[in-house]
Structure formats: C-alpha cells, structure tokens
C-alpha cells in the first residue's frame, strides 16, 4: 500500500460523497447553499472522515456503509470552524487561504451556514444504510455527544473563556481533548461500530484516535508558530495574537515536539492487536505529525 | 376532557423531561449549561412538544415513547430563537419578558448555546426508546430536514434577506411555512410515526399540523401589533421595526384574522377521520388563534 495514494483516494471518495450530500448551490435559497458549499468544499485535509473509513477497514468492514457518517463528521468540523471564526468568537479573516465564511457571505449567513451544516450532519447520519439500525442510532448518539457541551462545544467554551488569562496544563489538555479529540474519537468509533467491530477492536481504535487527535493538535499548535503562511492558508501567529492556550506556549517548541512524538507512539501501540489491515492507520500517525499544513 | 388542564399537564410533562435531558447548570463548563437552561426553561408555550405528544395520543400511542422527540423539537425551537435574536440577525434585546441569551451571557456564549441545543436535540432523539429503531431513524431524518435549509433555516435566510424590501405574498408564505410550519409538521409527524400511525393517520396529522402552524404564525404576527407587551414578553411592533414580512402588513388586520380563521377551519377538517381521541388537537386549534401571548 502506498500511503499517499491511498490517502488521496479516500479523500476523493469523501469529497464525492460530500458533493452528493450537500444541496446544490442553486437550490433555494441559494445564498445559504453557496455559503455551505464554500465552507465545506474549499479545501481541508478530510482527516476525520478518512479516519472513519480507515477504522472500518481495520475491522474488515465495507467503507461504503460508513460514508454518510464520515461526511457528517466533516460537516460538523466545517460548522465548528465557521462559528469559531465569527467576530464574536476568534474573529479570524482567513481560513484555508481564503476569506472566512462571514467575510465572504456576511455574519448572518455564516451563523446560519454553520447551523445548516450541523443540522445536515445529523440528516446525513440518518441516511446511513447497510448497518444495523441499532448501530446507526448508537453512532448518532455518540456523534451528538462528541459535538456537544461535553465534547467539541465544551472545548470551545473553555478555549474562548481562557484566551485572556494564563492557562495551566489541565485546562490546555481539556481544551485539546474536547475541541479536537472528541471528533477524532467519534470518527474512529463511528467507522468501527458501523463496520461491526468487536469490543476489543472498538476499545483499541478509540484509544488510537485519542492519541492521534492529541498528536494532530500539538502539531497544529506548532504550525501556528513554525508553519509557512502560504502552505497552512492562514496567518502564522494567530494563536499568540488571540492569546490561545497552546502546547508550545506551555512546553516550548522542543517540549511540544516531544509531546507529539509521545502521542504518536501511544497511538501506534494502541493498534497492537491489528495486522496489516491497520497499516494505513499506522502511516496516518506519521503523516499527522510530519505534515507541513 | 378539560383542555386547559390537559394542556398544563402535557406542558409539565415536557418541562420535567427537559429538566432531565438538559445537563445541570453546574456541569463543566458551567457557563454554557447556564445559558442553555436559561433559554429553554425560561418560559415558552411548549406547543411543538405538546403537538408531538397529542399526535401520538390521537393514534392510540404511548406518549412516554415520544417524550425525547418532543423535547428535541423544543430544543431546536429554543436554539433558533437564540440565534435569531443575535445582533447579526434580528438584534433583539428581550424575549419572554427577560433579556435575550446574548444580552444575558454575551454573544459568544449565545452562539455556542444555540449550537449546543441543536446538537443536544439530536442526541436526545437518539435516546428515543420503545419505538422501532427504523422509526427512530426516520424521525431523526425528518427532524433534520425540517430544521435544515429546506425548512426552518431556509425560512430564516429568506426572512433575514427580505427584511429591508417589500415582500410579496409568495415570499411571506415561504417564510412562514418554513420558519414555523416545518417544525409543527415535524412535531406531529414525529409523534405519529413513533406511535405507529397508519399512512392515512400520518397524512391527516401532517395536513393538520401545516394548517395549525400557519394559524399560529398569523396570530403571532397579529400579537406583534395588537398584543400587550407585558403579556407577550417582548416589545410590540418589533416586526415593523425590523421591517419583517407579516400577514397584517400584507392583508391588514381584518384580512389576517380571516386568514387565521381559514387556516383553523382547514386544520379541523384534516382531523375528520379521528374520533374523540383527537379532541385535544381540536381544542388546540382554538387555543392557538385565541391566545393573547
């Protein structure tokens, strides 16, 4: 397996499915559908949906069954970025090398586009087909939990509240494990559950995803300092500007790099019970900590 | 059956269930849970959840099975009010006799509280128990559709866009049938589907709910002109201030009243195939067009 080829193939599969799940741009009222498609289809690494597909494969499942759930996670990710970027939140003007949604479509449309994507995510989950109905309901419940106040939103609340003051290690870990970790975890679990994973497989993939999410977020923090603005598509130094809690701020660059390496090692260790069917997930770990965007 | 007693009983049942589905105020991070509970538990007529319960009863079903779905519709209604009230949208300061969510908790918390309620609505739907899993998934899909860009959000987009210009009858009907009608329709259908309605019963309740929603919205438009500020809990004349499309603006007060009466008559006619088990739904029509808040 060539990892890069396979990653591109999976991301393309996700993009095609997203195209079909998102209403066309000219569907009435067009403004909202333009804003939605602008935000979802304008780039992005598709790591959450790819993780869902790869988790299904690791347990011998059919990725077609997982596509709606995979796309729903990308929609939730896109909605959270739109709302995070709003003037009342992080007030960011650029994302993925283009104006943020509210800069391109106005604040009201951006609020509603985020709402629309969150809603569509659950509508798409309900279109899951081929898995046991009980499993689909379980996944909907888990995704709602991961996206809610004990997950993604909880992380965002603490992140927004703590921006103007010194942040300790526990708060930083809360923010990262909730704002990023929860959706990574839900992605792996959704793929595994819909593909019929055993308890042991599900537990292993859950642990893997938690460490992968942590590695991803530490790397994200580092790219905000070391990255190339043209490659990452947003201004470097925005975390510092917004006084965000980050790993490099608390541990220094070298300390943060060591933390990322540790998280990567733990992610790999969690895959011990799998054979070659988890090789893509293993390569994904290296990709996440070595990427430059 | 005494309608008022029964309405109070059902609303209380919904309030108790909401109390249990909403995280406690002190759950971490507390700010978001305070904002969520402030917005959902601070009044409201609970008409959508009551409609879901009464629709289940009309087809001989158990209302306990429908409670999670009923509460999810109230959460979606509450989220839509929070986001509609935001400065970038209608910029309203008062709702239900108290400061709006962003006035009480700040804009960032209000955006996130709306997001949290929308997310929790689907998590709560996934907790539906006692109905066939296929029916639960169908209801989740229908609620997502009703709350999405072809429903609630679509209505809000057109409403926001059309506020500053003259609105024709078709646009007004689009706004009302989407912004209000879609959730009424979803409420009746959710109750009926989870309670095992026949095709004919489901079709009849769907038609009933569409007319009821229309009657409700016309009455709402009229209360914004004729209502008592202290009773309705928000400033009278806010539609005119925001240049909103309304029935009285297009048809005059007498014309709007006639439209409401027509919608009420059509709602009652849709219930023809039901006997006494739909008496509550019949009284609900009168309540909706005669209410003073």
Strand arrangement across the biggest beta sheet of chain A = 1-2
Greatest interface? A-B, 50 and 50 residues
User: What class would the helix/strand composition of chain A place it in?
Assistant: mainly alpha
* CATH architecture annotation of chain A: Orthogonal Bundle
Q: Count helical runs of chain A.
A: 14
Domains of chain A (count): 1
- Helix/strand order of chain A, N-terminal first: HHHHEEHHHHHHHHHH
**What percent of residues of chain A are in strands?**
under 5%
Terminal Cα span of chain A: 23 Å
Number of strands of chain A: 2
Shape of chain A: globular
Oligomer: homodimer
Unreliable spans of chain A are: none
Q: Radius of gyration of chain A, Cα only, in angstroms?
A: 18 Å
Brief descriptors of the model:
homodimer; 293 residues; mainly alpha; Farnesyl Diphosphate Synthase; two-stranded antiparallel ribbon; 2 strands
Q: Can you offer a commentary on this structure?
A:
Two copies of one chain form a homodimer. Chain A has 293 residues and is mostly helical. Chain A has one domain (3-290): Farnesyl Diphosphate Synthase, CATH 1.10.600.10. In chain A, 73% of the residues lie in helices and 1% in strands. Chain A contains 14 helices and two strands, in the order H-H-H-H-E-E-H-H-H-H-H-H-H-H-H-H. Chain A has helices at residues 3-21, 30-41, 47-58, 63-85, 101-105, 107-125, 133-147, 152-162, 169-194, 199-226, 229-232, 238-241, 247-269, 279-290; strands spanning 94-95, 98-99. In chain A, strands 1-2 form a two-stranded antiparallel ribbon. In chain A, strand 1 and strand 2 (98-99) form a beta hairpin. In chain A, helix 9 packs across helix 10 (199-226) and helix 10 runs antiparallel to helix 13. The longest helix of chain A has 28 residues, at 199-226. The mean pLDDT of chain A is 94. At the A-B interface, helix 2, helix 6, helix 7 and helix 8 of A face helix 2, helix 6, helix 7 and helix 8 of B.
